Amino acid sequence: MKSINIKSIAAITFFASAIIFSSCKQSNKTETKEVPKAKEENTAAIEVSAEQMKAVGIELGTIEMKNLNSVVKSSGQLEVPPQNKADVNSLVSGIIKKVLVLEGSFVHQGQTVAILENTDIVKLQQDYLMLKKELVYTGQEYQRQKELNTESAGTGKIFQQAAAKYETDKARMQGMETQLQQLNISPASVANGKFVSQIPIIAPISGVIGHIRIKTGSYLDMQTSLMDIVDNSQVHCDLQVYEKDLFKVKSGQKVVFILTNQNNKQITGTIFGINQSFENENKSVIVHAKINNTGSIRLLPGMYVSALINVGNQTVQAVPVDAVVNAEGKTFIFIVSGEEENTEEKGPKEKSEKAIGANPEKSIRFKKVEVITGVTELGYVEITPLEEMPKDAMIVTKGAFYVLSKAAGGEEE
């Protein structure tokens, strides 16, 4: 009787274990089927409210066509030609009586910037006046000896001496007149007995006053510069192009400049000259490019720039670097898959403004699109979408990382 009971109990235990194992296996199958479903939810449309977009600074735009492939990258700084900058000097030493300009002020060529006093100037004017009066006498003596020599009443030696004296005095007077004019003193006024002890220092070019090295009452010698003047109207860029890229660069090519320390603002230019010698030991050649348009950007000599020299005409699809995100070993951009009412007839800018409206209850739906990236230049990256996209599709140009966090189910920041 006992053996029969033991066999019955063993059979019951076996069947119970089989039922439990079958239930666990069925449960595992159910769980594995739910995983792809969760993955599909992650690739669905991503909704971001207008209030969230405004808070995190999400911006919308379109895919642009940029010339990123056929370019030569270089760097350099802004310069002005030698004829557009000048040092203000004096031809005589003396005491500064007045300074008539301020640093940063604009002056015209020929404008008086300072007044200098020197007593030696008075002696120069005296010598000029005396020589002018003496020249009258030597001129008369020359004419008298010339007449006598013509009539054979005088000697040839005396005539030659008179002629030499007259020519010498005339040359001396012309030299002194030139000196007076260089000092901005009128020879005619000196001839009338009007002497001056102070002379004006004038600006040699038009431009903006730089550093002023003098002050009222300071002594100035001829080796010391009073101030400098710079005319920034002809500012251009000196770029360093290395030997490997030199054969690609030619005069007339277009250039895009990025002002490195000015929030990466862009200006355009054209190459107008290429040096024919290497600079120092870095095997680079200076390439000169004029600025075509500055807009409201203030350009100063010495500003550092990065530049792209356009050596071809190929264009590619490109988006701002902030529009591209990486996830799961792939690269994505986000396009607007659900737009507000009546935005389909608007332009890209109007669409963006409409999408990020003031109504916090409305949401924008985004779709993740995988792309392949290429060259990156000037804040843009080349892209090739791996699926067909609508024409003029709106994309996230700034704040794509936040949209990615929403897609991954991350918490709002």
From TrEMBL:
InterPro entries: MdtA-like_b-barrel (IPR058626), MdtA-like_BSH (IPR058625), MFP_Cation_Efflux (IPR051909), RND_pump_MFP (IPR006143)
Keywords: Transport
SUPFAM superfamilies for this protein: HlyD-like secretion proteins
Record-given protein name: Efflux RND transporter periplasmic adaptor subunit
Domain Multidrug resistance protein MdtA-like barrel-sandwich hybrid: 84-227
Presence of the UniProt keyword Coiled coil in the record: no
Family from the record: Belongs to the membrane fusion protein (MFP) (TC 8.A.1) family.
This protein's record includes keyword Transport: yes
Highest taxon in the source lineage: Bacteria
Multidrug resistance protein MdtA-like beta-barrel domain location: 237-312
PANTHER family: CATION EFFLUX SYSTEM PROTEIN CUSB (PTHR30097), SLR6042 PROTEIN (PTHR30097:SF4)
